[in-house]
């Protein structure tokens, strides 16, 4: 799942967490598919962020919001000191497998990746 | 070298004015000023900041209060200190004059580690999971204290990391003569922090050697590894540390549990990425 | 100089921007007699003061960031620092201002112009006075029996409505027997802090906390606030007290110890029992009545092995 600013949310994305009013009353449940009218409503309510399934937006910067693809790319560098260590290589393989799995799962759930046009 | 080490240790322990990030201090101060604030709300906010957490634990474990070494929970500490004393701590706390990305990164790393420790402790069914979070939050405090008390040596440490690809810990040991884990041990003793916290923050690089609370040190060790794997925040160097197999064995973490932990961690990241330290 | 002034070097902390004042203190005492620490501002000093209290605190009314008397009030309001003697430094013109000396809780005054001899004499006097036994409980520094009785009787005489709560610890003796008096003292200090902070947070002009002795505490609050306070105190106590036991006992939820007859027995974790008596419409005439009523209520509270509070249900 991914927390994104409202202006990057698009119809078709699916809420991973419910959206509530400031007094705590839920306005849309987890699992709801976003539509233009729903997004307008959120905007009118002053909602700034939503949490959606998958990773439909290529975000970068905020820690932890980097995609699993990025995690895979970084593995070589992060494990660079243990290239000859059997145990750490084992761990690395475990991590690689995990990130691959998650990356695939995200891709399956998401809409075609939306480039954030206005950064 | 012995004299130099003693001199530096004395300088470390002489720390009086530990600054924190402006935004954190600001938010805590605002919260404490509201008339309807509860202890729980303040504890939650303070538990995200290593400096305020350290100050609160140091104060409540001071012999003056009568029960040194007993309190390892921020919530409990606040109940025992009261708002009066808490306000005095806030008022006395200054902020870093020169803020840079790396400092903010360290705060993010510590918060991430605190969160991860909580996740691990809960998943493994430990009691008093908040205390594991506290250890995770404070495990790099020694780096902050060294920055403040030995500022002339910091550029050398950073240089060693940048030029020779040393880990921050290796660079500290080379330049200072000791690492932040040793500094944490000195601070924990001097401030009379409870033994489990002490071991969590001074044995996290060699967790299986912790004499009394190895599970605490192992949890922090595993969290630290995960935070560096995800590059959550910045702890002075880039790269994963050696993951001690003994730590996984001691905690009985098998691959399937490890994966569950990673899943939970990813969920938690979504929660805490909203917090901004700037 | 003749015999040593003090048994050991005294720590004197001076909060003042006036470097001349610090100089005078340095001239007044030899390094063997006193260690002087001078800080120019109030705010930064407060945390340091709380962490590492000196033997004598000297506060200049003229601090750049916060009135000296405010610093004094802050210090004196915490039970753990009440015994700390505080001397206020003033210019003689300041005496004209209307200072409420009862509220100020200052122990001594140093009025400029000062000389080393004056400073030496008054500091030694303040330190000597502080070490004389006061009514305060020697462990928690909270007001003791005399103050408590005085306070209750005063409220009764003025026919003010108030709630009077008597709190004590169940199974405290068995804890002491097993873990020793030192750890027992730790529990008392912790209990004192919980009661003080909770009563203060609930607040109001009648708020008062006293320590009768041993594990017996007393607190006074307005009748409509006392139940909230009892609830909060009980909850905090139950949350924190397990951490004063060894891990194994904490896990088990009980300890093995010897009772008064010398038999092995199991005792639950300590619990707080509170009995609350009300004075409404001048019902009570004498503090003795209050404590008698409370003793009877307390028996009911103690029937419950867990922490609880019992309120006197009778109407005036």
What does it look like?
The complex is a heterotrimer of chains A (119), B (278) and C (316). Chain A has 119 residues and is an alpha+beta fold. In chain A, helix 2 packs antiparallel against helix 3. In chain A, the strands form two sheets. Chain A has a two-stranded antiparallel sheet with strand order 1-4. In chain A, strands 2-3 form a two-stranded antiparallel sheet. In chain A, 20% of the residues are buried. The two termini of chain A are 20 Å apart. Chain A has one domain (2-109): Molybdopterin biosynthesis moea protein, domain 2, CATH 3.90.105. Chain A is built from three helices and four strands; from the N terminus they run E-E-E-H-E-H-H. Chain A has helices at 36-45, 68-78, 86-109, and strands at 2-5, 19-20, 26-28, 49-52. Mean pLDDT of chain A is 80; it is low at 61-65 and 111-119. Chain B has two domains: 2-92, no CATH class; 101-272, Hypothetical protein af1432 (Orthogonal Bundle), CATH 1.10.3210.10. Helix content of chain B is 66%, strand content 0%. Chain B has helices spanning 2-13, 22-33, 39-46, 50-60, 74-92, 101-123, 129-138, 141-149, 154-164, 168-175, 180-190, 195-202, 214-229, 245-251, 255-272. In chain B, helix 12 (195-202) packs across helix 13 and helix 13 crosses helix 14. The longest helix of chain B has 23 residues, at 101-123. Chain B is globular and about 50 Å long. The N and C termini of chain C lie far apart (66 Å). Chain C has 316 residues and is α/β, with parallel strands linked by helices. In chain C, helix 4 links the parallel strand 4 and strand 5. Chain C folds into two domains: 10-128, Rossmann fold (3-Layer(aba) Sandwich); 145-311, 2-Layer Sandwich (Alpha-Beta Plaits). The mean pLDDT of chain C is 90. Chain C is built from eleven helices and twelve strands. At the B-C interface, helix 4 and helix 5 of B face helix 2, helix 8 and helix 9 of C.
